[in-house]
Amino acid sequence: MQEYFRVLPDLRFDVDLVVASGDQVFTRWLLTGTYSGVSMSHAPSDRRFEEYGCTLSKMGQMGIVHIWHYWETDHMLPRRAGQ
Looking at domain 2-74, does it have CATH number 3.10.20.90? Predict the structure, then answer.
């Protein structure tokens, strides 16, 4: 987690929806920040970062027993010509 804050010092995590049903909880979230720090793979660019995602949590008697995270990966895939 420290690496994220070094690269995106203004990193922000906002939850905009939580739905619970039985032993499962769905959470939709948004991560935002600015690439203004240095890392092994990114030079500072002052570009905004925005990542939408969701988490599905399975609950048990003592709390969370399993978590699945899903997030948009469009920006990670190479763009085809003309798009």
Answer: no
Tokens of 48: 């905004």
2-55 confidence digits (pLDDT tens): 777 788 889 899 999 999 999 999 999 998 888 887 766 667 888 888 889 999
pLDDT score recorded for residue 46: 84
Instruction: Record the pTM.
Output: 0.71
- Start-to-end CA span in the chain (Å): 33
HEC letters along the chain = CHHHHHHCCCCEEEEEEEEEECCEEEEEEEEEEECCCCCCCCCCCCCEEEEEEEEEEEEECCEEEEEEEEECCHHHCCCCCCC
